[in-house]
Each structure stands twice: as C-alpha cells, then as structure tokens.
Specification:
Strand content: 5-15%
Structural class: mainly alpha
Number of strands: 2
Shape: elongated
Helix content: 40-55%
Number of helices: 4
Distance between the termini: 48 Å
Strand order of the largest sheet: 1-2
Radius of gyration: 17 Å
Oligomer: single chain
Length: 90
C-alpha cells in the first residue's frame, strides 16, 4: 500500500520550470499578480520598500512577462526567469 502512495506522490511532483514554460508557450501571461489591482497593490508595497530603504538596484527571480515593471519605480533592474520563452519575449 505505501509503495503505491509513494509512487503516486512521485508521479505528481510539481515542476515549476515546466509549468511556466508551458504557460508562456501556450500564449498565457504571468497571471493575476502581474495585472490589475493585485499588480498595483504589489507594486505599491515594493516601490515603497525600495524608496524607504534607498535601494538602487532590484534583482527579480521570476520576472515573468515583465508586465509588473510598468508599475515599478526602480533606478536599476535585472530580471531572471526559468522560462526561456518569456525571456525571449521580454
């Protein structure tokens, strides 16, 4: 019984890189956190933090399609992502 459960769990492991690559290849975007009111909320918090702490450079791991950057206020920025498709898009 436990062998079957372990096999099921291994088969269902989530792969973040595959998920995001498949999402962007299919023409989808970075999702709710990068658009609309959630993006505005996230940007206001991050922009406030960057300003308050006199941060000059922001490095983002998981930049996605870059839409969130429209709302950012950074002096210098570098973004990385696991999806080759979205990096080429940006």
């Amino acid at each position: 019984m436990f062998k079957k459960i372990k096999k099921f769990i291994r088969a269902k492991r989530f792969n973040s890189q595959s998920y995001w690559e498949d999402r962007y290849v299919s023409g989808r975007d970075s999702g709710d956190g990068s658009y609309g009111r959630l993006a505005e909320f996230k940007a206001s918090i991050i922009n406030q933090f960057v300003s308050h702490n006199n941060i000059n450079t922001v490095i983002e791991y998981g930049c996605g399609d870059g839409n969130q950057l429209k709302l950012s206020n950074y002096k210098s920025y570098m973004g990385f992502d696991v999806s080759q498709t979205v990096i080429l898009l940006c």
